[in-house]
Amino acid sequence: ALEAQKELTELKEVKQLRLIADDASPEALTSLLFQNDGKMSVISAEGGIFGIAAGRYSEKTNIDIFLKAYSGDPIQVDRKGRASEFIAHPALTMLLFVQPSVIQEIMGNSEFQGRGFLSRFLYSIPVSRIGSRSYETKDIPEPARKKYNDLIYSLLGIPDVVENREIRFSGEAHNMSRIFFDEIEHRLIDDLEDIDTWAGKFHGQVMRIAGVLHCIKHELGAYNVLVEDDT
Question: What DSSP character marks residue 127?
Answer without folding.
Answer: P
